[in-house]
Write a structure and sequence with these properties.
The structure is a homodimer.
Chain A (H helix, E strand, L loop, with lengths): L1 H16 L8 E5 L5 H14 L3 E7 L12 E5 L5 H16 L6 H26 L1 H9 L4 E4 L5 H9 L3 E5 L6 H4 L23 H21 L1 H11 L5 H5 L4 E4 L15 E3 L13 H8 L6 E5 L9 H11 L5 E5 L12 E4 L4 H6 L3 E6 L3 H9 L4 E3 L6 H10 L3 E3 L7 H13 L1 H15 L5 H15 L14 H4 L2 H37 L1 H6 L1
Parallel strand pairs in A: 1-2, 1-4, 2-3, 4-5, 5-6, 6-7, 8-9, 8-11, 9-10, 11-12, 12-13
């Protein structure tokens, strides 16, 4: 603890001194709505603090963006309402909460994801349709563009404006965030997203991993089809997914190998997992009172993330039952109808200071949907987790925490009240979980520089040097056959086969000569007999 | 300049604050003699400053080690003299300076390298033979072992003492520093050491690269044969090169991608290229006087490294001729017989403050053998280079600098006086070289943390956490076939072929049934005719 405090003090002084160095660049930010924005906002605020002119391009209608605008905001008109946006997400979520057999579930997921992607694509369309915005962007002399590229819009805009660009993200589907920067992903120990495998796979899991990788070739092209059509139209050339993405100067990835499986990486990937973990602040009075009243048993923090604060009543009742079975006070972020069986020890709140609560020494467990922000806050504050993944990368995150022995995963669709109660009691009472998460936390926090400062450094690096071309691998100039040396293998094989063939022919020729000689010398009688 | 100064100030304060955090561990250091020791010594001194107990294990007879012992030294007796050591290096160097046709040169190099390696192996043998040393090591409770592993001794000792270990190095032959941590090295754009290719290879260079990689399978096993026999004997089990090396917790590699070709890396590789670049200090009076007297033309710094200060007289005369052709004052580190044609503008010195001279604004060029320390000092101080590589990785280093347009390479065996004169004039007068090295320098120095502090962090990390098992890829648990998914490919191929075969058989069966039916219905007459 002393170590961490001293470290933070030293780091703060180091960072306080740095602002004097920055000469003030001009950065365009194209963010992604929803929870994606939460950690990017911290980076934007820090860059503002350091004297840069940061312009955030946001739609007039959004969930998380636009609030608390201490940064410069440029809004563009959109052709949908907040209700449309909410309905789109509600539809997306409902598909995840509906239990359907395979392959119906996969197909439904694919279709709803494509429709949700369509909403973000329409945002992008709105930017390029707005003459005022485009005129502003063309006339502003930006040094670089920072974007969460999941919806491709930032990458399209950066290519259009010929700006060096930085990606800030958790990950693409289909491992595009590894394929685009030409990073090898050996299928034998690097599990593909959504397989829920660990890095230690059985033979059949490895077969599954290979099949999923093959399937992804179709999946992502289909998924991004409309987006690519749009980008091609804007950039007036045919662009593939990799064309559009491989120009990123730096990939700021919200990953840390304490939590992620170890794998090859590239020098222009910067790992900033845990960037959202702030130091715990004192709790607001009403929360402080609840925590203090919890006695020796302490509290449990329960949140399904910034996007989900309501669930079907049947599920809510089951969960309420389970929460009543533990002696801890449970703080549950929930905005739905109050379940009639809500136990005494459960306090429903519309919002909670998640990181500050997790940092409180009385917190015994964290019930989470497994979103990456929450999981990193759980790790930073060393709180064992019960994970109920809903969508996106959450199942993979949950499996990673479980594989490290720092939490237990439940299937929210199939779990019973008893399952949840057991899981919660286990992570609280079995010391192994607390020990494991404490070890992960210590490893995660023992780093030479805070992820936020690292992200700031690399954004400024790209602004100062107009990109980072020295970190671009020469692999980008090779085609698939050349990259995998298939032409070299074919050539060497041809040389070997030709050599063998010539040697064989020579041997045959020599043998024939010998036989012929023998024939001439040893069997003259026979010749004569004809 | 202001930027760099502010940055260094901030970094220094950050680092000054950190010592208070360290709780003082106990580190065993097994270094490598020669220039290898120069930058490791800086790390050792810094770790000492931070309150750790650092024990450096060195032979009684050595070139560079043992001097200025502010660190704790433990010496062990050896069965050779300093003269033996010098003769061994002289023999090693002479093979490089003798022009022989291929494959005689390659064979001679292989043999002399193996003999030189034998000297370092005998050092290792001496450690394990010394009862006193082994007793001391067994009884001391070290937290970790830091070693330059090129001669395998440190890795053997760490395995023997079951200590977590950190490698500090420039690189192994045969890319072992990538193979051992399971880092992919695509042959299509990652040039093997000693091929002198860049990352942008023609088809035939790629063929050459593949053939060299094949050859290395034989080369390194032969080269390290005796060393592995020794390690197997000590560890009482059969160890392969990869077995011995893959346990390293962290690989501190003296690489920077400003200078190196971009390629995949692994999370436990930490890049500390330029760790040896200190901020330029004021020059000693005698050097200050020479530099000041050089007038508007400035000076040229000429050194063939810490190990080579003498060359054959014929070569020395040629070089002296070339140096006389430029108006700059040349400071040449040279201890041999003074060439009779030594021009007025050349000052011979037995030692020179290389980094401080390179940092002087009057320095116009750096003539170097291309050792990695010198090259990084050239980059840090933005001085264009003329490179005359002698041995080891120097030719590769030289080619890298040349490929970045920051210097010119000469073949010391074949160059004429005119070649050298032309090269020197070109790098001084063609502004392109100064611009390129300035750009490299700016990119290299723009980093979030100084390489020395980064190295300190990771050594302390391993000491604090008894290793870094969370950075060990699961690939270590796979065999070659599994790693490359050959079993999965074979299985999937078998399934596809079997499916095709069954489908084909079914089709055939159906066809036959159809034909048979047709036969029975349409040709009854013929049947009857029999």
């Amino acid at each position: 603890m002393t170590f961490r405090l001293c470290y933070l003090l030293a780091a703060s002084i180091f960072i306080l001194l740095i602002p004097g160095l920055s000469e003030g660049g001009k950065l365009l930010v194209v963010p992604m709505d929803g929870s994606h924005w939460l950690s990017m906002k911290q980076l934007v605020l820090k860059l503002m603090d350091r004297g840069h002119e940061v312009v955030v391009l946001i739609p007039e209608v959004s969930w998380q963006m636009g609030k608390g605008q201490s940064y410069t905001v440029k809004t563009y008109p959109v052709d949908y309402t907040l209700e449309d946006l909410d309905n789109s997400f509600a539809e997306y979520l409902s598909v995840h909460l509906n239990s359907q057999p395979f392959p119906m579930n996969a197909l439904a997921l694919y279709n709803v994801s494509k429709r949700t992607f369509g909403v973000f694509l329409s945002q992008c369309n709105n930017i390029f349709r707005s003459t005022e915005i485009m005129q502003y962007l063309n006339q502003s002399d930006f040094d670089a563009l920072l974007t969460d590229p999941i919806a491709l819009c930032g990458a399209t805009l950066a290519n259009y404006l010929s700006l060096p660009f930085i990606f800030f993200m958790r990950g693409f589907p289909c491992s595009l965030h590894y394929d685009a920067p030409q990073c090898p992903s050996p299928l034998s120990y690097v599990p593909r997203l959504f397989t829920f495998n660990s890095d230690n796979m059985t033979f059949f899991q490895r077969v599954e991993n290979a099949l999923i990788a093959l399937l992804e070739l179709v999946y992502c092209n289909g998924f991004y089809e409309e987006g690519l059509k749009f980008s091609s139209q804007i950039l007036q050339r045919d662009v593939s997914l990799l064309d559009l993405l491989n120009g990123a100067s730096i990939w700021l990835l919200r990953y840390d190998f304490v939590f992620e499986y170890v794998r090859p990486v590239m020098p222009n990937m910067v790992f900033i997992g845990g960037i959202n973990c702030a130091q715990g602040k004192p709790l607001p009075k009403e929360f402080e009172a609840i925590v203090n009243a919890s006695g020796e048993h302490g509290i449990v923090v329960f949140s399904l993330g910034s996007m989900v604060s309501d669930i079907p009543m049947k599920k809510a009742r089951e969960i309420a039952d389970a929460l009543g079975s533990v002696p801890q006070t449970v703080l549950w972020r929930y905005t739905g109808k109050v379940p009639s069986n809500l136990p005494q020890n459960v306090k429903l709140v519309k919002w909670l200071p998640q990181n500050d609560l997790l940092a409180h020494p009385k917190t015994r467990a964290f019930i989470t949907h497994g979103g990456s922000h929450g999981v990193y806050e759980g790790i930073c504050n060393a709180v064992p987790m019960v994970l109920m993944p809903l969508f996106g990368d959450q199942m993979d995150n949950a499996k990673r925490v479980e594989s490290r022995g720092a939490g237990l995963t439940l299937n929210i669709l199939e779990m019973t009240s008893e399952d949840m109660s057991n899981a919660l009691k286990t992570v609280i009472n079995d010391k192994k979980y607390k020990e494991n998460i404490k070890r992960l936390s210590e490893l995660h926090l023992d780093r030479p520089i805070h992820p936020l400062d690292l992200a700031v450094h690399w954004v400024e690096f790209v602004m100062r040097h107009k990109g980072a071309p020295h970190l671009r691998p020469a692999a980008h100039d090779l085609n698939w056959i050349q990259y995998h040396s298939l032409d070299v293998i074919a050539f060497l094989l041809a040389v070997v086969l030709l050599s063998l063939f010539i040697s064989f022919k020579c041997c045959m020729f020599c043998c024939r000569r010998c036989c012929f000689k023998k024939g001439r010398t040893s069997k003259p009688a026979k010749s004569k007999s004809h």
